[in-house]
Batch of 4 targets.
Target 1
Amino acid sequence: MNKGIKVALIIALLALFSAGAYGAWYVNNIYKSLDVQVISTEKEDLGITEEAEVKINMFENSKEVINILLLGTDKRAPDENSRSDSMMILSIDPVNNNLKLSSLMRDSYVKIKGHGSDKLAHAYAYGGAPLALNTVNTNFGMNIEYYAVINYGGLINVIDALGGVEIDIKDYEIDMVNAYIGDVAKIEDVPYKAIETTGLQTLTGVQAVGYARVRYVGDGDFERTERQRSVLTSMFNKFKEIDTKDIPGVAAKLAPNVETNVSLYNMVRIGTSVINAGMKNVLQARFPTDDYGYGKLTTKWFYFFEKEETIEELHDFIYENEIPKSQKKD
């Protein structure tokens, strides 16, 4: 799942290298261990419409905000066709000095180029990251050009390199969390320890990935997206505390597990933007919002939503820091 969760770090980490701590040679070496893909930059192929760009350009900070599609897959073998287990838009906003995470509901009923209408998560299975990118842009009125994908092993290694993440385990979650921890450990062929108590505690990489994959307790997929964002936010907070000398080790564990179309030049540019802005906060939201609901079509359950309203709410969150009313805390 959380593979997507880590691109925030890859951008920030490589950015710090570019800031001069280790020099161009080191940055270049780390970049070479990424799985860099070259995809079409044509707007039609990316799913970027003129209508979407007109709406986005109405926001004053639209030129400064950088959006990256983060993808986590349920792939268990290199040649396996998989769905995207998690999808998030990471928005780097140097104007407001924050990062934003927009979780996209995997069951959202959307149009997928060449495949009719289906679940958002299926776009990746049909055409990999390029089709997933096209699908998000087309259905959510975005103009995203960059993506990154991560696998279980990479996330586990990075969380462990950061010293674990702080997560509050609820009493109704613990049994299912432990079941998923065992599943993740089996897939990655790594040892693990079950969580023994509830409450705020430090989770290892395997434990955190298991936690983030939990879907069938609490509020289903709605709550799962919150778990995913909680892990990422905790990782971000840990990253802010890391000693500069330890950054290379974290980056070295991360990079080999990331597929992306971000060029070295843009990696440095984006990262430098993060560092120079001194970002300290991560804002979170989920789209489509809680105002919509599930429905059955033939034999499948989908999350149906009103497209134009969702696009407006997503744009307001990314460009104006406006959290959707249904997700505001009292």
Target 2
Amino acid sequence: MTPGTSLLFDPASVEPLSRDRPLFMGFVRDAETAHILRAALAPAFPAGLILHTVPFAGSLERLGQIETPRTILIDISGEDQPLSAILQLEAVVDPGTRVLVIGDNRSVSFYRSLTRNLGVKEYLPKPLDIAMVTRELLPWAIGAEPIAELTRGGAMVALCGAGGGVGVTTIATNLAWLIGGETRRHTILLDTDLYRGGAALAANVPPSTGLRSALEAPDRIDPLLIERAAHPATERLHVLAAEEALNEVWSLRPGGGRALSNALRQRYNFVIADIPARPLGFAAEILALAQQRILILEASSQSLRHAKRWIDLPAGAMQTRRPIVILNRYHRKQPLSPKLIAAELGSEIAVIVPDLGAKAVRASDLGETLVSQKGSFRDAIVKLARLIGAAPGPPPAKAAEAVASISIGAP
């Protein structure tokens, strides 16, 4: 099937579904695959998982005799013409049915043909394992959108501050500049505070008027809109930051953050999101969608108190580990030591960023990058980039190793 062919299983063709239609039915060729599928899917079906062990031809025969379930899983392994096998399903699958496929073809082009051109929701090559099936197929089987869909595309990292003024924008801007400017990964710096435009000022680019337009009409978000709205800071670093009028009322559509996140992650390798101290609305949506949170605090009692509240926040759906904790603007004369802060938080400090004093303020005002200069600040940002997989070199085996390798003091 060539690109541009109409989908066989087109979600737009959904007809009213009978309430008696089974939620899910699976057809597999061998007992081993059936065992793995039962282990992964059966707990979600207390009334019983409908799973048949039959050849592909038997699957077609069975489906031709019944009203198609809402979701079906078909095994095409062993078929000489697997794409032709999928085409044969068109005659026996009712409109609106979601089709999942497993087989023995492991090529990327085959996967794309099924999921992009033929309307198959997901394809997994054998051999399967329980974790893979749970992650990729279970959400579809129970009638939900799979969380795993969010893993496709670039990585989104949210930088949060334990209170205002702890240096989130400075670290976010320099981290984004390092990834986009030096490691040459396509990167976008997203400022989720729609009224201040701090990231635009720090990156020395104008604020965008397109960000508000995108969030007001998320169904119109596409790569072209993003290209118009984002401003280039370097060849591979763009900035998306708004500076809306403080007294102007406008409508933020629910789901706008998710739509924008999906579009950005399809366009960029890394989305570095600057989250305000009080995340509401759009900022809260982006925070929940990020794969990783970075929590920034200073060595003060107030900052430590706010950091504890951030640590206690529920993790987002894609956040599989605790926030990376960054101690910013640190010097040895401060009363709270890194060891004490780590003990209070119950979380190791991954990176310590030295106090640069007026130098950091001047760089922020002039839109200059501190990470381009050799010294301990750059070392800290490089360590952070490695921790999120955005810079060459192995990440530290333990967060403590990252702390130990950073010298504290003026660069």
Target 3
Amino acid sequence: MSSAAGGAATRFWHATRDFAGSARFAQAVTLTAVGLAFSSHAIRSLIGWPGLLAALAGLLVLCGASLVARWRAVEWYGILPLTILVFVGWCAASVLWSSAPGSNAPAWSAVRAGYLIAFAFAGVYVALMRDTIQIVRAFGDVMRLLLSVSIALEVLSGILLDLPIAFLGIQGDLTRFGPIQGIFGSRNMLGFVALIALLTFIVEWRTRSVLRVRAIASMSLAAVCLVFSGSPTTWASLGAALVALAALYGLRRTAAATRWRWQIGLLVAAIAVIVTAWIFRVRIIELLDARAEFDVRLEVWRELSRYLNRNPLQGWGWVGSWPDAAPYRWIELATGRPHSSALSAYIDVYFQVGVIGALLFVALVGVAFVRAWLLASARRSVVYLWPALMLVVIATTSFAESFALAEGGWMLLVVCAVKAARDMSWRDALAAGRPPVPAIERLG
């Protein structure tokens, strides 16, 4: 009897391991991870923080089981870019000096740092278990569903019922041509997701990984959501992404021997454009009809500056999305409206983890972008455009929003950084005694 029971247990273990180690299981977990990360606002609105945290814990268990089952198939050396490790480590270390008065600051920092690490782990899992084209397909499938649900609810609220759906933050302004929020809580977040979706659908179309009819319908859906969101920050990011796409289109058609000259020329041109945009920033803001949004951000940043001098080097301690505690409550009271962030990822990081944390975050985004850009400009497959374009959107959006520091935006940043690092690793290159060049250039 005991022998039979032992044999049954062994068979059950092998069956479970084979199931958890299968490609279909990894695909399902990837879709779940992306869906959970980008629908977190809707999940919180429906079942609250306990439900979201329970769902996240279940996701991490599934990711862990899949990793254990496929342990031998994973190349563990150089999994994470050092920039991710150091930035996340610094955020976690901020628990030691978190000093927000009037609140249990170390506990806040510990919980929020764990939340940051959880989504980073999910992002690492996605980057490890799936190829770039599979990741693009996963994001495309999830974005199609989330944007479709958003439009359906906006139609229900604004046309069929003519009533807001308060618990989701949907105002029902579709008949007035927006702005709409969908299931994402704000028009800027909807615009951010719609832009990510639009670029993802374009890559799907160009790689012929979906039918043409489906690709056109998907791009139309994303474009409608982007337009009706009425988000000025999204329009600016769209402009940057289109310029980057045009530049990559040209670079991919230049000879490998002369491509570095064009890269330097583009770098100089980009610096010139940034300086020019800064000089004419007021006029650009007026053209984008973003004066009201810019004034809101300026007011928040002005209040933040009053508290920055107290902890400039190490910051106040990592909290991610702002809690209802000092000094964040003081800033909200001073500005007269609630805020969940500093409305700029760079400033938010500076405030929470100081100058050191801000430099580490800039290094994370910058190094990932350089790697992804070089890969996109050198590799033949169109799919390598996707990480570079995602990082362009993240880098530009982070000037006016903090999406890159939480949930879906943060997981997307981790996925792109890990994929770029694994395809162009400085550590592997130094160990081999050669510069880190894309594979296409090594093959000649």
Target 4
Amino acid sequence: MKGPLFYAKILLFGEYGIIKDSKGLAIPYNSYQGALKSSEELSEKALESNKNLLKFHSYLSNLDSELVQFRLDEFKSDVDAGMYFDSSIPQGYGVGSSGALVAAIYDKYVDDKITVLESLTREKLLKLKSIFSLMESFFHGKSSGLDPLNSYLSLPILINSKDNLEATGIPSQKEGKGAVFLLDSEMIGETAPMINIFMNKMKNEGFRKMINEDFANYTDACIEDFLHGNVKSLFGNVKQLSKVVLSNFKPMIPKAFHSLWQQGIDTNAYFLKLCGSGGGGYILGFTEDYVHAKELLKKYKLELVYRF
């Protein structure tokens, strides 16, 4: 048995903002993927995944929802026969490792599933997102359902608000000097503690005002610029967003990267932002000159995501 591939995702814009109903833009990232496989002889990593699937099965068995029905007996017998999720997606890195697994389970064990071949109305997207939110809560305690949605559909998703999603197109890549890249912090980030920090900060009126005004405005402007290919304007807005994040989200940025973050803003050579919830994992970078940025960041592992 070998299931279809499900890809990683990158939330280009909107981390934390989407929890509070502002815009977001997520794109599939095909450099990493996962698939359900089965084997009688399991490696240590596969065995760990197999045990995790058993826990996930138990969680789904207790889900009280009219939204979705799983073929749980089949799922259980596949797990007993050595099924595991074979994935190259790094865990705790903000690129949707649990999302790809959720997408694979939904794809394999739901009868009346919504498929990418249908016309994806807003209602269907919202239903899928709700189902995925329920499923992925097993991993994070609270999930928007966006990561699995992106992985399942393998399409860029524009989040206008909680109840308004659309599959969208992004401008095709160019062979220019500019780039979006990932910077590896070489630390694992955990989503739940970061979201707790954010929720506590949201009790502060000044922080709420910053999220609703500066953070939301720059995020929305970045999305608009990116989708319409306004590269010059995009970098101006990403710089402002990078400043806002450095000032207000310090606990989510590993300490070792605070000065590197500031260096980008001071030199205009690159601008950094959170990739997912932060606390480790990948940091997302934007630059108008990837060669120059690579030189300045040569101590770090970078991965190219998109070219301007």
